[in-house]
Amino acid sequence: MSHYQRLQRFVWVEPDVVRPAVRVTVWGRWFLLLIGVAHLAYPLEFSYPHDLEHAVLHVPVAALNGLVHHRLLTNRSVTWGWALASSVMDFAFTTSHILIHQGGFDNYTFLYYYPALGAFVVIFSSFSLVLAWTTTVAVAYALVCLFVGPGLDIGAGDVKELAARLATMYLMTVAISLIVRFERARRQAAMEGERRMQQERIDLSQSIHDTVAQTAYMIGLGIDGAIRLAGDSNPRLVERLAATQELSKSAMWELRRPIDVGRLFEGQQLGPVLRSHTATFSAITSVPTEMVQSGVEPPLAAEAQAGLLTIAHNAMTNAFLHAQAGRVEVKLDFGTDAVRLSVSDDGVGLPSDYAERGRGFGGMERDARRLGGRLIVETGEPDGGTTVTCVAPYSTVRTGDYDGSD
Q: What are phi and psi of 53, to 5 degrees?
């Protein structure tokens, strides 16, 4: 077992918490570095060697912060190790600044310790680790105050003020730690509830596949056999059976949505599931259907994938039941900033009041809004046909960012 793995056993931190927390600390560090540079530039009196040493101190902090920021911007992995390295750099920078200026207790750069400690507590939720790191910072700062610069003036009450500063460090970290633990407990409870709901969806989809869908399929086969047996002997019976057969196809197709949504919650990607969904549509309805995918699918939240699949399903349902379509095409494009899903048919088009008829398009509109995107409907001109398109930005559908709010 490596040293990194041994340390990881004592670090309790959720991977999906690290990235947004590190993003906040990166911007906060840029702000503090900007203040430091402004302090060096004004007034325009650069003294050697103290100001030069101060300026040099900014270089490793800016370099590490820039490296972490680059990893965030390029969607590369940012683990707790990067957060720990940044915290150590913050501590080293603040302490070195105090040592260089020989200010000791009178140097108010110690205030930088507080946001650094706060950022550490937000990322690392292990109370023992937080306490150990706060103690390290407090002891180091106390030693600097005692042995650097003029030291402490007992008569002036410096000891009491130093004790207050150190106590503030502990009070701040404990308070933030308690708040963070409470929020994480609430978040974990919500995630557990969501996991239960996802498992219920998976179980439901499997149950539908094993029972109702199989029964509907057998009913369809029975109707096909009845139509063949009837032949031309009873036209009215054949007509009734044909209508019942269409209802059977519609029922089988509607049952495919919860089945394939369950596959998404099992962890499968949207592209392969939608391709299978499209092939099933063609098999059930006998409407030739093609799916075209472009781009590489990024990690998407299962709920967002389900929303996109539902929009595609409803658009294909309209093409089958109402558009009298002879062909359907589904396009799934993973672009630079957004995912674009479109379903096109060569049917009769939509009436001018299509939005007020039924609940299909209203449901697709709501699903698009939940995805943080928009629904575009093009129909009727010049040769009929309809194209339903949903464009959803990655900022709202990626894993960890999707909240499903309307």
A: -65, -40
Q: Is the link from the previous residue into 43 a cis peptide, with omega within 30 of 0? A: yes
pLDDT, tens only, 121-141 = 888 878 888 899 999 999 999
Which position has the token pair 């949504």? 261
CA distances from 244 to 223, 257, 323 (A): 8, 21, 19
Find all residues with CB under 8 Å of 62, minimum gap 6, and list them. 33
- Is 400's pLDDT higher than 60? no
Q: What is the pLDDT of residues 51-92, one digit of tens each?
A: 666 677 788 888 998 999 998 888 777 877 888 888 888 888
- Please tell me the predicted confidence (pLDDT) of residue 48: 46
Summary mean pLDDT of the chain: 81
Percent composition of the chain: helix, strand, coil (DSSP 3-state, to 5): 70, 10, 20
Q: Find all residues with CB under 8 Å of 295, minimum gap 6, and list them.
A: 333, 334, 335
* Cβ atoms 139, 166 nearer than 8 A: no
| DSSP assignment string, 100-161 | HTT-GGG-GGGGGHHHHHHHHHHH---HHHHHHHHHHHHHHHHHHHHHSTT---GGGTHHHH
Residue 86, both tokens: 């940044």
Reference 355, options 332, 379, 335, 371; nearest CA is 379
- Burial class of residue 244 (count of CB atoms within 10 Å of its CB; 0-12, 13-18, 19+): middle
Please identify which residue in the block is written with the tokens 């059976």: 241
